[in-house]
Amino acid sequence: MSKLKTGAVESTKLRSYIERIEKLEEEKAAIAADVRDVFAEAKSNGFDTKTMRQVLKLRKLNHNDRLEQEYMLDLYKRALGLEMELDEAA
Hints:
The protein is mainly α.
């Protein structure tokens, strides 16, 4: 008898968790649609959305991590000849 009661409680909790997750997934989809709308609005006003996405990623990093990432990117670009040195530009 106790197994049935325990099973019923567990299934009730499980159903509650599943329903909460489903609700959050619906909210997440709605927010994702809102984000797409904002990007579309920015694009229609002449902003480059790829660059905006890069800026958003950089803003998530702390200052030191961002500096390190920017330094490494610059180093790799120069190593591959993708960016001229400042001396070469003059």
